[in-house]
Amino acid sequence: MIGSVTESVWHATRNMAEAVVAPFQDPVIRLGVTGLSRAGKTVFITSLVANLMDRGRMPQLRASAEGRILAAWLQPQPDDVVARFAFEDHLAALTATAPHWPEGTQRVSELRLSLRLAPTGLLGGLSGPRTLHLDIVDYPGEWLLDLGLLEKDFAAWSERALAKARVRPGAEEFLARLDRIDPAGNLDEVTLKGLAQAFATHLQTARAAGFSDCTPGRFLLPGDMEGSPVLTFAPLPPVADPGRRSLWRESERRFEAYKRLVVKPFFREHFARIDRQVVLVDVLGALARGPQAFEDLRTAMADILGAFNPGRNAWLARLLGQKRVERILFAATKADHLHHAQHGRLTALTEALLREARDRAEFAGADTEAMAMASLRTTVEDRVTHDGETLDVVRGRLSGSDRQVAQHPGDLPEDPARLLAPARAGAEDWPLQDYEVQEFAPAPLTLRPGEGPPHIRLDKAAEFLIGDRL
Q1: Which residues of the chain have pLDDT under 70?
Q2: Secondary element (H or E) of residue 453
Q3: Fewer Cβ neighbours under 10 Å: the N or C end of the chain?
Q4: In angstroms, rounded to a whole number, what is the distance separating the alpha carbons of residues 460 and 64?
Q5: What integer best gives the mean pLDDT of the chain?
Q6: Whether residues 7 and 113 fall in one domain
Q7: Does 430 map to a domain?
Q8: Is the domain of 324 the same as that of 456?
Q9: What InterPro entries is this protein classified in (predicted)?
Q10: Is residue 114 in some structural domain?
Q11: How far, in Å, CA of 341 to CA of 183, rounded?
Q12: Count of the separate structural domains present in the chain
């Protein structure tokens, strides 16, 4: 309890200090970018920064269209202990002669982009140009799911994790090991380590199969914590009165240590300081993996919003340490995998899929938006005749191959309930047709001076996220 009070006081004191000095410094927007695996976080940040520096493809960003952004340049980030987002390396990968996807998000990283803005308003001529700093914080969405663990004890988490393991792929070895041990027996490090590794393997398999809610997140992306006691535990069946040196009690202790030493510092140091947030969602990927993966994505997104503490805050609330996320963008990525005629349906499906999550945010006072977008356009549109029927398709190079293909993954329904209803009912297959989405590789680019990489609605996303501050 004393530790929790101390953390709250420290957090409030830091926000108070930031609020006091803010009027004497250039304004800063902290933009958080997250999404579960394969959602496209790295590409989103790379393309956003490149297109804010060379704004020829940003007509829907009003400040750019009206010529109010005079310059944009990268500066050293303000957090000296946080890794710098490797923007130059990622852009080089996307614009190489043989372009390839950059490495995905493995840890928290940050980048500061400074924008020089023309003066506006009646007194603009007296004040001169001003500077706005955009601090972009990249972090794995799997870690964000861990914030839900703060409200659970070990017994509750174990019950839920075991129930999921019994119906998800890749849990056979873990469940077999679990059957061979006595959770009330004395702790054996070799046994617990093997159990934890088998559980981590199950989480990796479940994630690869399209399931979204796979906690603890550091079991998927351990980083330099791999092999440490704080990542050496696993869910266990209930024990009536576990002894102090039992396997169950030690797993419980390590679960609490994980929350205290891993989850809470992440929330305090990074997540709790976010002003605006992008949540990238691979809706098409979940759709292609079937109703169960689709429903799991829906529930995971709703759980994530419980951690955002969204809404507008008055200056006094900020001063007292109650900072909130003001704007949240839910973006269905990879819109370039569909013909533009399907983009409206993809947006409607995304809105329906995230309805519960958006309702929570809007009830708390946050501005939210959902849209279909592509941070980097990898395809061109075409029409083909197949079995006497004219189909709208997209053409591109298959990922991991030199083969060019035309893709029509299937028409999305006008009514999203035709997909949401069977997913919520636990259907194993879609009732009408399968949706197969091939992954495309980035296409070779030829950029004219002043142009960033091609995209779909990235300028509209930027307008929603930061346009009011430009």
Answers
A1: 1-24, 37, 121-127, 305-323, 360-364, 432-434
A2: none
A3: N
A4: 12
A5: 85
A6: yes
A7: no
A8: yes
A9: YcjX-like (IPR007413)
A10: yes
A11: 56
A12: 2
Residues 459 and 313 in one domain: yes
Q: Is residue 391 part of a domain?
A: no
Give the separation between CA 376 and CA 40, rounded to whole angstroms: 10
Express each pLDDT in 313-357 by its tens digit.
544 444 445 567 788 898 999 999 999 999 999 999 988 888 877
pLDDT at 318: 46
pTM for the full predicted model: 0.85
Token reading at 145: 């799911």
Question: If you count DSSP H runs as helices and E runs as strands, how many of each does the chain have, helices first?
Answer: 18, 11
Last-in-domain residue among 218, 235, 266: 266
- Whether 184 maps to a domain, the answer reads yes
Q: Let me know whether 187 and 81 are in one domain.
A: no
Residue 12 sits in the same domain as residue 126: yes
Residue 316 confidence (pLDDT): 41
Of 212, 242, 266, the last residue of a domain is 266
Torsion of CA 243, 248, 252, 258, to 10 degrees: 140
User: 326 and 456, same structural domain?
Assistant: yes
pLDDT digits (tens, 9 = 90+) for 250-292: 999 999 999 999 988 887 777 778 889 898 989 988 888 888 8
Write down the pLDDT at residue 21.
44
343, 303 Cβ separation under 8 angstroms:
no
Kindly state the helix (H) or strand (E) to which residue 179 belongs, with its residue range.
Answer: helix 172-179
* Residue 236: Cβ within 10 Å count: 25
pLDDT per residue over 75-94, tens digit each?
998 888 888 999 999 999 99
Same-domain pairing of 87 and 28: yes
**Residue 335: Cβ-neighbour burial (10 angstroms; 0-12, 13-18, 19+):** buried
Co-location of 257 and 301 in the same domain: no
C-alpha to C-alpha distance for 61 and 293, rounded to whole angstroms: 35
> What's the token pair of residue 422?
């069977």
Q: Which domain holds residue 230?
A: 145-266
424-445 burial: b if 16+ Cβ within 10 Å, else e: eeebeebeeeebebeebbbbeb
d(CA 453, CA 459): 12
Q: What is the DSSP string of 198-246?
A: HHHHHHHHHHHTT----SSGGGTS-GGGTTSGGG--------SS--TTB
Task: State how beta strands 327-332 and 276-281 pair.
Answer: parallel
Which two tokens mark 50?
């490149």
The pLDDT, as a whole number, for residue 402 is 82
Nearest alpha carbon to residue 51 among 32, 33, 69: 69
